[in-house]
Automatic annotation (TrEMBL):
InterPro entries: Peptidase_S54_rhomboid_dom, Rhomboid-like_sf, Rhomboid_protease_S54. The chain crosses the membrane at residues 68-86, 124-144, 156-175, 181-199, 206-223, 229-247, 259-280. It is found in: Membrane. One of its GO terms (biological process) is proteolysis. Pfam families: Rhomboid (PF01694). Keywords: Hydrolase, Membrane, Protease, Transmembrane, Transmembrane helix. One of its GO terms (molecular function) is peptidase activity. This is Rhomboid family intramembrane serine protease. Residues 115-247 form the Peptidase S54 rhomboid domain. Belongs to the peptidase S54 family. Gene3D superfamilies: Rhomboid-like. It comes from Streptantibioticus ferralitis.
Amino acid sequence: MDQAVCCYRHPDRETGVRCTRCERPICPECMVSASVGFQCPECISESHQSSPRPRTVAGGTMVANPRLITTILIGINIAVFLAVQAQGSKLVADLALVGAWPPPPFHATIGVAEGQYYRLLTAIFLHQQLIHIGFNMLSLWWIGPGLEVALGRARYLTLYLLSGLGGSALSFLVAGAGSESLGASGAIFGLLGATFVLMRRLNYDLRPIVAIIVLNLLFTFAQSQTIDWRAHVGGLVTGTVIAYGMVHAPRERRALVQWGTCAAMGLVIIGAVAAGVMRING
């Protein structure tokens, strides 16, 4: 007489069904319907872990929270803004970007030319007025998540930071001597340029994003006495170039092209800053 076969997870339950992958006996409670027959819970779990995660057009992985990096960036900006409100103009003077123009005999006494390179980064998280940070953070909240999903978190964060640094570099190179530049606008313009590239890659209607970019540029130049157009243009160009390399990179060399584009733009930024320092220090 044949010995009764019991479920491997429930030894007290007889069964005549086996997992189609590992052939272990499974009872009705342990059966998981598969494309062919039934599988046990362990095999189903292993198949989920081994199956590749879906990728976006730029190679980003699908995530549960598409606003994680965007929320962190907004949080940093708000934290710095609150610190400015508490410390006053002294903190702004310590963190803002100072222009490098005109050439010698002008000599800078503070800023990047004196080795304070951190100002290139701190300036893009620095705001003084509520309307300034409010507009920038609303723009980041609206624009950021779509790019965060499409590019992936690491690429998105790199795009944001390099766009901001690109704006800072151009501002430092050609802004008036002693003029202060601050705000996330350069990084936001970089995200606008990246959105244009992504929408073009996906064959979306480009008219809305083109209209937004043009209107923002018109407003920027119309208010050039109070708005640093150099940071906006530098961020826009940097973000557009980086995004093009990210979304048009061939799949077989995707990482090489994407990070190579970022490295190339990083070198351009370094070159612009070096040129500004050389101009001041003669």
